[in-house]
Backbone:
């Protein structure tokens, strides 16, 4: 049976199209597969968790972005071939690796509402398969930690630093949990959290922090005991924030929970050889213990819409400074407050300025205790009457000594 002329024409068109497409596709596949392979990527343990955990930063270096893939997909995973539009100064060559990332939600401090940056979610690792041509490079997804799509960004890959098995730093340091990697209300063991202390604050990789929820304050001078919720291990560092892994948890962790750095573990004793003479340490008389801090330190008060210290406030803080200098390791929290007049946001900023002014004054007097500054604004008033005497009581900074 003879094929009609019109059908024969369509068959010829399809055959020609197939002949043109097949070699091009085969050549592309062969080119990608024949690219020299880089050494296998060795990354495991804490560095791998840290790399996937992401971090908080205002901006990050951009080398290019994903514009599509060889396959018609909207989401990409391990082994997929991606096309990357790179910047002219990217200077990529075959075998190089790129980190795939995506800036996600903005993070604000849970107490001061100050912006801390965006969560940079690390999505995967790419390997460059071809030379750059017209600012386009072909890559293969070597590792995928999350779904990847067009528009995601890339930057040069760097191996994360090793995380020490044991803590190497010492000294008290307090901070606050500001957000979680996963967008949820609470988190717990084996999850990633971010704190508001970083490298410039003395945090180091491997540091251990306990997560504490302060006991409810019953009065100016008494409160319920603090509750220990979890233990964190620092696995990633930025200048003012850090990424932490929840090693263990006894209860749910919330944004705004406090963290305290734990002391390093005691050094192990090295056994001496049998028969060796025993070293005798020089005994020095112990120093007299510092006088304990009182349970409550007197609040300092401020004028309306001001954060400058009054003469009375300076006199109060000068007396407190002498006590604090005798207990230099006691962590101090400065809680700033304002009266009810003004917006929530304005009063949070005003409360923070008042607490920062108290910290500045104490530091100039020689106080070296670790400070945490928190602003409650017009929340948690100590007086609710609508008169100036009540407003005056609410314009204050409360000095909290850890453990009291």
Residues:
């Amino acid at each position: 049976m003879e094929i009609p002329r019109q059908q024969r024409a369509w068959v010829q068109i399809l055959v020609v199209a197939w002949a043109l497409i097949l070699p091009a596709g085969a050549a592309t596949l062969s080119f990608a597969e024949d690219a020299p392979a880089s050494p296998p990527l060795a990354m495991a343990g804490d560095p791998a968790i840290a790399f996937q955990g992401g971090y908080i930063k205002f901006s990050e270096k951009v080398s290019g972005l994903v514009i599509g893939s060889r396959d018609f997909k909207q989401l990409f995973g391990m082994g997929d071939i991606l096309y990357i539009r790179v910047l002219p100064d990217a200077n990529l060559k075959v075998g190089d690796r790129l980190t795939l990332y995506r800036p996600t939600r903005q993070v604000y401090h849970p107490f001061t509402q100050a912006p801390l940056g965006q969560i940079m979610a690390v999505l995967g690792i790419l390997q460059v398969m071809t030379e750059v041509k017209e600012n386009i490079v072909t890559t293969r997804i070597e590792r995928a930690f999350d779904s990847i799509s067009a528009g995601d960004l890339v930057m040069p890959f760097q191996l994360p630093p090793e995380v020490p098995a044991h803590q190497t730093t010492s000294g008290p340091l307090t901070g606050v949990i500001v957000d979680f990697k996963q967008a949820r209300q609470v988190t717990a063991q084996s999850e990633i959290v971010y704190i508001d202390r970083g490298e410039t604050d003395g945090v180091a990789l491997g540091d251990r922090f306990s997560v504490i929820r302060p006991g409810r304050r019953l009065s100016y001078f008494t409160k319920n005991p603090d509750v220990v919720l979890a233990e964190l291990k620092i696995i990633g560092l930025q200048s003012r924030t850090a990424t932490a892994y929840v090693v263990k948890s006894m209860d749910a962790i919330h944004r705004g929970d406090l963290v305290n750095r734990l002391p390093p573990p005691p050094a192990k004793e090295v056994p001496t050889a049998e028969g060796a003479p025993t070293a005798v340490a020089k005994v020095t008389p112990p120093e007299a213990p510092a006088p304990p801090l009182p349970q409550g330190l007197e609040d300092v008060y401020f004028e309306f819409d001001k954060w400058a210290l009054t003469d009375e406030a300076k006199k109060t803080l000068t007396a407190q400074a002498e006590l604090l200098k005798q207990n230099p390791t006691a962590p101090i929290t400065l809680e700033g407050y304002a009266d009810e007049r003004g917006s929530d946001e304005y009063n949070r900023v005003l409360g923070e300025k008042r607490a920062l002014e108290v910290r500045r004054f104490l530091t100039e007097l020689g106080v070296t205790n670790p400070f945490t500054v928190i602003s409650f604004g017009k929340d948690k008033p100590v007086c609710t009457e609508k008169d100036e005497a009540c407003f005056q009581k609410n314009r204050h900074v409360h000095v909290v000594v850890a453990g009291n």
In short: The chain has three domains: 45-156, 174-261, 300-401. The domain at 45-156 is CATH 2.40.30 (Elongation Factor Tu (Ef-tu); domain 3). Residues 5-34 form the longest helix (30 residues). DSSP finds five helices and 19 strands in the chain.
